[in-house]
Design a protein that fits this description.
The chain contains five helices and five strands. It is an alpha/beta fold. Among the domains are: about 55 residues; about 55 residues, no CATH class. A five-stranded mixed β-sheet has the order 3-2-1-4-5, with helices on both faces. A hairpin with a 6-residue loop joins strand 2 and strand 3. The longest helix has 17 residues. The protein starts with a strand and ends in a 9-residue tail after the last helix. About 25% of the residues are buried.
């Protein structure tokens, strides 16, 4: 029996919107009014590829504070509750992915194996595609507060997670060798 492949990444979404190309009447520059508050929501996500490579999934968790290793461990524990069999987690070499708390988690779970992408290789990471899609949907938006931003982000991630086409696109757009054929 194979293992579930899990690509894990973290990201932050600011209350200040990111500007993207948009439509406006000819000769009129669009004006995006926004708050100058630097509130943010931090998030962990995991793009999963089942053992037979037929079904993809998206798991995520939102946080009001900056992510630290204990939050990453809690997210991994939650993933293990949802996924059956062996799990191979592939993630970047971020500082929150190392340290004693992560090593302790690995020591307590024989089903989980951790692997790291090479340094400075976001083009290999399929979960980066999830964040590109989610932040693209939120671009040019102007949430009034963190609760509205949270609701918008939840809706965006849920929509992406329901679409096998979008999830498969996140994997195939990465520079990983093709393995979903």
């Amino acid at each position: 029996m194979g293992a579930t492949l899990v690509f894990v990444d973290e990201s932050g979404v600011l209350l200040i919107p990111s500007g993207r190309r948009t439509w406006a009447p000819r000769g009129q520059t669009p004006i995006l009014r926004c708050w100058q508050r630097h509130d943010r929501i931090s998030a962990s996500s995991a793009l999963t590829v089942g053992p037979q490579r037929q079904r993809l999934g998206l798991y995520f968790q939102l946080h009001d504070d900056n992510l630290k290793a204990p939050a990453v461990c809690a997210f991994l524990r939650q993933l293990l509750r949802h996924l059956r069999g062996r799990v191979i987690v592939v993630w970047d070499n971020g500082t929150i992915h190392t340290g004693p708390i992560i090593r302790a988690l690995c020591a307590t779970s024989s089903r989980q194996h951790l692997e790291a992408f090479p340094a400075y290789a976001p083009e290999l990471h399929p979960d980066e595609g999830v964040w590109t899609l989610a932040k693209g949907e939120l671009a040019n938006g102007r949430p009034d507060d963190r609760d509205v931003l949270r609701a918008d982000l939840l809706a965006s991630l849920a929509r992406i997670g329901r679409s096998q086409r979008l999830l498969r696109g996140c994997v195939t757009q990465s520079d990983l060798p093709p393995f979903l054929r």
